[in-house]
Specification:
The protein has about 350 residues and is an alpha/beta fold. It has a domain of about 230 residues: Rossmann fold. Helix content is about 25%, strand content about 15%. It has 9 helices and 13 strands. The strands form 3 sheets. The chain has a 6-stranded parallel β-sheet with strand order 9-8-7-10-11-12. Strands 1-2-5-4 form a 4-stranded mixed β-sheet, with no helix packed on it. Strands 6-3-13 form a 3-stranded antiparallel β-sheet, with no helix packed on it. It is globular and about 65 Å long.
């Protein structure tokens, strides 16, 4: 994660009006009034699921005008961001057309979910890196992400899931992609092939090293070089583990029209697909908030260059090493992202028929 430094300047509280977003009327731009109204007695944000997310509490909250205000909007997404210069959280309503909105879930890996792709023993790592943490993530998916995605399916323009690697022959039969939609017969055939492929792998790597060679001069460097905190290589995962066809988890529902994004193809095909389907807005969910959610092909660092992106914060989990709960890790990751991203939550996304 990039380091962030606060410039040592003093600014007055920003209660400004008339800030110009853009000036070229030929591109249908508008002047946005960046007038901030202080919210008295603001409520904590992201407090709906305290088991998974430590609520965000900040002293100052401000209300701003809508940034997205589509004609005939039917999807209402309240969102917030944080500004050091404004000295607080800025909240605003947004009014989107669902027909121009995509719901994307980053890396719903089917690990330890009964499909056959399992955490290698005795010391292998994948996804949230232990079976217990993978199961906690799966429960979060079932209880929060799946209902959210399903509530928007049929209303939003499309639902997409991103996975590592390239489109291999097995997953090509299982999932719709940008260029291919399998038949029901192909899906059944792909499911049989997936199970055979995943269950035939030996999920067993090496044990922890019993001895390390440490120098007298820099033993700490030698220690971590030989025994790092995260080694997902063939040492502990067994050769070929990461070449297996990673499936979408069974904890979400994959409909025939849902689309799978393959990371190895890069961002350009994803951008083209979304543009060709008239997508302007993205509701982003998935894992992990501090890693794949921001930096992979369908992460917000890519998408926010071309689309109006809303991070559905409580539909995401960060990795949480050294802890039994993800609450504080997700809070920290989302709080940092909110410097340059709009953040929403499940209860703030509401669909109603346009009048």
């Amino acid at each position: 994660m990039q380091s962030h430094r606060v410039a040592a300047f003093f600014f007055p509280m920003l209660l400004m009006a008339g800030f110009v977003i853009a000036e070229d009327s030929s591109n249908h731009t508008r002047t946005y009034s960046n007038k901030l109204q202080k919210i008295e007695n603001p409520k904590p944000i992201l407090a709906d699921y305290p088991e998974f997310f430590e609520p965000i509490i900040e002293q100052a909250h401000f209300e701003a005008p809508a940034i997205v205000n589509d004609k005939d909007a039917d999807l209402h997404v309240r969102a917030w961001r944080f500004s050091y210069n404004a000295r607080g959280i800025i909240e605003m309503p947004n009014h989107l057309k669902a027909s121009e909105t995509a719901v994307i879930m980053v890396h719903p890996w089917g690990i330890d979910d009964g499909q056959g792709w399992n955490t290698p023993e005795p010391n292998g790592v994948a996804d949230f890196c232990t079976r217990e943490k993978n199961h906690l993530s799966a429960r979060h998916t079932r209880e929060i992400v799946r209902p959210f995605v399903n509530s928007l399916r049929g209303k939003a323009a499309c639902v997409l899931y991103s996975l590592p690697g390239n489109m291999d022959p097995i997953r090509q039969k299982l999932y719709r992609s940008f260029t291919h939609q399998p038949t029901e017969a192909q899906r059944k055939e792909g499911a049989i092939e997936l199970k055979a492929k995943l269950t035939s792998f030996k999920y067993e790597g090496e044990p922890l090293p019993e001895t390390l060679n440490l120098s007298e001069d820099v033993p700490v460097i030698d220690y971590f070089r030989q025994f790092p905190g995260l080694d997902a290589s063939a040492n502990f995962n067994n050769k070929g583990f990461w070449e297996l066809p990673i499936p979408v988890t069974t904890d979400v529902d994959v409909h025939p029209d849902d689309v799978v994004i393959y990371d190895a193809a890069g961002y350009a095909p994803l951008r083209q697909f979304l543009k060709e389907n008239g997508i302007r807005h993205v509701l982003l969910t998935g894992y992990a908030t501090d890693m794949c959610f921001c930096r992979t092909t369908a992460g917000y660092e890519n998408l926010s260059r071309d689309f109006n992106v809303f991070l559905v914060a409580d539909a995401s989990l960060a990795t949480f090493p050294s802890n039994t709960t993800p609450r504080f890790a997700v809070n920290a990751s989302i709080s940092f992202a909110a410097l340059n991203q709009l953040v929403t939550q499940v209860s703030w996304v509401k669909f109603e028929e346009a009048r």
